[in-house]
Design goal:
alpha+beta; 4 helices; about 110 residues; 3 strands
Length: about 110
């Protein structure tokens, strides 16, 4: 008779919602884990919108779109607008994503 397989989770592999709401030391911008990046992004979005260029530069999030997708999958209502922006070197970028958190999620 075989025993049912139990799914083992690695450290930090709670539900996406649990990892997103973790307020531990992972909030530091030196932590490049996806969970820490989601925390930084969500904390910023609770105060103001952010564009892709700023998220990369200020929050150390190299793939903001992926983190936004994960936050949406976790139940957060995030709106995307496309705008033209200039980077720190003065180069124009068209259709840069600007993310805004809509409403309050619990």
């Amino acid at each position: 008779m075989s025993r049912p397989q139990t799914q083992r989770r690695l450290p930090g592999e709670g539900s996406l919602r649990d990892r997103t709401h973790n307020t531990s030391a992972q909030h530091r911008s030196t932590d490049t884990s996806a969970a820490a990046q989601r925390l930084r992004l969500l904390a910023h979005l609770r105060h103001e919108a952010i564009d892709t260029i700023t998220a990369r530069r200020d929050l150390n999030i190299m793939m903001p779109a992926a983190r936004v997708k994960e936050l949406r999958e976790g139940g957060h209502n995030i709106q995307t607008m496309r705008v033209d922006r200039y980077d720190d070197q003065g180069r124009k970028h068209s259709r840069v994503a600007v993310y805004s958190l809509i409403g309050v999620t619990s």
